[in-house]
Amino acid sequence: MNFKEPAQGRKSAYYLRNRLALISAAQQVLAEKGPDTNLEDVANAAGMAVSTIYKHFAGREEMVQVALLEAMHEWERDTFATFSESDEPLKQLVAPMKAFLQLKRTHPLIAQLVTKNREVAFRMAPITSANLLAHVKRLTKSGELKIDNPELRTRNVIACLSSALEDHLMNPKSSEKENLQALVIALGMLGIDAAKASELLLPGT
Q: What GO terms are given for molecular function (predicted)?
């Protein structure tokens, strides 16, 4: 027996589909045009009228904010999901750091968004810092990391990774090897020597 979806349910599903389509279209256009993106661009990309955008967002600013935040949350979910892929504490620390510097390969759309819209990077940084600092503090407390002043060291690590990410995104000649070298330096700031860092960064680890 086939049951018809209630009218209210159909309306809600239709609303949600349109909203998701607009967010996706906004991300695509922002990745191409950056700050020059306007409502007409997004409406055309989504195959909708500009008036439809106003049913979901107060205006361009809110639409852009939501599109960028959704992209950031996608990256955050995927990146920090790597914590659960290993039972070894130091590998759990390194995995999301590796993912951070593989953005262009793993999340090309988000990489373009970061390149064209620097505010994405600014919004990613506090989340990255908070998650990394919490992890570093746990490892310091458990004795896995033997360091002082984890807050300062974590800030230095983030600065190192952010610089490496910018080079990774902006420099066509940037290589995977250079990214790994940056990670070795960053891990050194957390008291992990180069030999151990290289071991942790081996493919498949």
A: DNA binding
Residue type for position 146? K
d(CA 54, CA 64): 13
Q: Which fold has domain 7-66?
A: Arc Repressor Mutant, subunit A (1.10.10)
pTM over 0.90: no
Amino acid letter for position 76:
E
pLDDT in tens, 60-95: 989 998 998 898 888 878 776 766 667 788 988 888
User: Which residue is it, tokens 């990745």?
Assistant: 31
Q: Indicate the domain borders of the chain.
A: 7-66, 68-200
pLDDT tens readout for residues 5-54: 445 566 788 899 999 999 999 999 999 999 889 999 999 999 999 999 99
C-beta neighbour count of 22 within 10 angstroms: 24
Give the residue among 89, 172, 72, 102 at the shortest CA–CA distance from 136: 89
